[in-house]
Amino acid sequence: MLQDARIRAIMVQAALLAGVAALGFVLLTATARNLELRGIPLGFGFLWRPANFQIAETILPYSSSDPNWWAAVVGLSNSLFISVLVILLASVIGLFIGIGRLSSNPLVSGLCRVWVEVARNTPLVVLLIFNYALWWEVLPLATEAWTLAPGTHISVRGLSMPALTWSASALAPLAFLGASAFILLGASYAARRRHMKTGRRPAYVSMAWLFVAVGASIFLFAYRDAASLDIPEFRRANFAGGWSLTPELTTILIGLTFYTAGFIGEIVRGGILAVRKGQWEAATALGLSRGQTYRLVVLPLALRSIVPPLNSQYINVVKNSTLAIVVGYQDFMTVVSTMINKTSHAIEGVAIILGVFLAVNLALSALLNAYNRRIAIVER
Hints:
four-stranded antiparallel beta sheet, globular, alpha+beta, 8% strand
């Protein structure tokens, strides 16, 4: 049996796996014994005790009497909120930076190059600390806030802007919008299949758009009071109402977006340069403008080489969001760190941090890999 190479390989791998498991068991039992000697039992029971600390800025409802596990969920929602915002903003800005780097205008290409070089050659933690210090040194007090746009003000207290508020009756038009999107997608898919089979384009899409337009007009008239715009007003030394971003949240949002957009800009530039010269010439021969060439030919082709490195950048955004701790924004890392300090369950807390970030990044990576497989060229 030992002369069979396949069986020998299985036995070697089983022995290695058993060795790793034995080492992990020894480390775990030794850690549990040392913690027990110090009066700190190993376990996750502390998650059900009251948190007894405040979280200044939350997306989900929270009070200090809530259990620790809910505090961790609230912190995770803060991390995901800032990560999603940064990914969206950095993707849009990075696209323009990548195109701007290839511009024939020296001012545009020069500014984009400076952005990229500063982002790539500055430590992120230093950039965040600099932004936070700059915020308090440059911006005025709330009484002398700068007005960026009607209803939008910025001061040392943060950024205040108008917010769209919804009443319960707004659920009906929102449900109609969801159903409309489903109908339009279904009509477009049916029309495309019909066109591929018969060569004729049916009127499904036009009829669907007509149905949606008539329905939207009826819902807008019937539920015209369901939504309103809440504009911030200055009351008692600060702005009240609307949507407010604290200095901590704004600092991490601007800093991470600036940093990530620089890297995404270079990825976009590399993807555009990877498009063959013949594709440009073919688009020019068809009479497409430069904007149409980018939108219809170059960017769809470049996307195939852009998505894999973008995957890494998006994962880095989630990991870099933990640096919010340096400016005091209470994200998942900060909340669990506070939990560890109050309960002394460091091993369990760190394990939770590792497990949650691993799960989030694996899910994000799987999503982008599935999209990459969808747009990849299938060679027959």
